[in-house]
Design brief:
By secondary structure, this protein is an alpha/beta fold. It is 42% helix and 18% strand. It has eleven helices and eleven strands. The structure holds adenosine-5'-diphosphate (ADP) and 6-O-phosphono-beta-D-fructofuranose (F6P). Residues 13-15, 45, 76-77, 80-81, 105-109, 111-112, 115, 129 line the site of adenosine-5'-diphosphate. 6-O-phosphono-beta-D-fructofuranose binds at residues 15, 106, 129-131, 173-175, 231, 261.
Length: 328
């Protein structure tokens, strides 16, 4: 690949998230301002292998900053986990004259990008996933929108729960992590927050703890009890049934599901996407490669791709502790 970056490719991969379109737009517009050509690869790494590649210009990214989803489509591609798939991907990049590839997605997609970098393809990664599970950044694009969507749904559940003096257990997404659950739990004033990072796998004691907590709160005059559960713990319907049996109090389960992945991105996600997209292109034109863009202490930064993938994201202990103090 040439040292000077004249043409870049951009793709979205893994689970979609609000702000993906805003990130593509920022990459395209920033590149165009520097007279760099942009090629869009549709359907993530599958599209790369199938050479599903289109030229992108400023007009192609008009009117998308406010939309959820990804107009380049996204996919999961098992073939790209094989060395043959990765070699073919690198060949396609060379064949189409891509001097660098911007990969928009989560940790899994960045693993794919790392494989390409090992085959001498310059990559730049932008973290977009509702799960906020990329360790090298405080926030991923899409997290804020997903939390707001789930929060609004839980507010509505709280109203009906209170009217009927019921308990509600609500499952939110997050794959193996509890960032969405923790944020919603705090923002919704939930009575209990269940996250995989603080779960020891003993479902029976968890249910007994929750049942005792519900009864204790009833004695104190509380007319509802909201439990936010992360999908990484799951078993939401079983927990609801067990709690109703143990407490005698009507308990309903709701799994919010895919609506958390869609919707118009919040201002915060549009800002992050715009800033990180531009930063990614600027890093490439400054001669940098193989990095993950992120935000840390309110500053947009880049972290080496290998380092980023070796980092582990912990749940914020301060947030977890405060959530236990201010909810009861
Ligand atoms: P996300 O990027 O949201 O974390 P996934 O974990 O589903 O999503 O990964 C998206 C895609 O990235 C996978 O379908 C695959 O094509 C690619 N990928 C994931 N892990 C690897 C890996 N270890 N090596 C090569 N490619 C990978
Ligand atoms: O990574 C985003 C996410 O929505 C996770 O929260 C969830 O576990 C997963 O994707 C669902 O993936 P799929 O689209 O394959 O059902």
């Amino acid at each position: 690949m040439a040292d000077e970056v004249k043409t870049i490719g951009v793709l979205t991969s893994g689970g979609d998230a609000p702000g993906m379109n805003a990130a593509i737009r920022s990459v395209v517009r920033t590149a165009m301002a520097q007279e760099i050509r942009v090629k869009g690869i549709r359907k993530g790494f599958i599209g790369l292998l199938n050479e599903d590649i289109v030229d992108l210009n400023g007009k192609d990214v008009a009117d998308i900053i406010h939309t959820g989803g990804t107009f380049l489509y996204t996919a999961r591609c098992d073939e790209f986990k094989t060395i043959e798939g990765q070699k073919r991907g690198a060949e396609v990049c060379r064949k189409h004259g891509l001097d660098a590839l911007v990969v928009i997605g989560g940790d899994g997609s960045f693993q794919g990008a790392r494989r390409l970098s090992e085959l001498d393809i310059k990559v730049m990664c932008i973290p977009v996933t509702i799960d906020n599970d990329v360790a090298s950044t405080d926030y991923t694009i899409g997290f804020d929108t997903a939390v707001n969507t789930a929060m609004q749904a839980i507010d509505k559940i709280r109203e009906t729960s209170t009217s009927h003096e019921r308990c509600s257990i609500v499952e939110v997404m997050g794959r193996g992590t509890g960032h969405i659950a923790l944020w919603c739990g705090i923002a919704n004033g939930a009575e209990d927050i269940l996250i995989p990072e603080r779960y020891n796998g003993d479902m029976d004691s968890l249910i007994r703890f929750l049942a005792d907590h519900i009864m204790e709160n009833r004695k104190r005059g509380k007319t509802h009890h909201i439990i936010v559960n992360a999908e990484g713990i799951g078993h939401t319907y079983e927990i609801a049934e067990a709690l109703e049996r143990l407490t005698g109090i009507g308990t309903r389960a709701t799994i919010i599901g895919y609506m958390q992945r869609g919707g118009s991105p919040t201002a915060k996600d549009r800002m992050l996407a715009s800033a990180m997209g531009a930063y990614a292109v600027n890093q490439l034109t400054a001669g940098k490669k193989n990095q993950v863009i992120g935000i840390s202490e309110n500053v947009i930064r880049a972290v080496d791709l290998n380092e980023a993938l070796n980092m582990v994201k912990e749940i914020d202990p301060f947030l977890y502790e405060l959530s236990g103090v201010i909810r009861r």
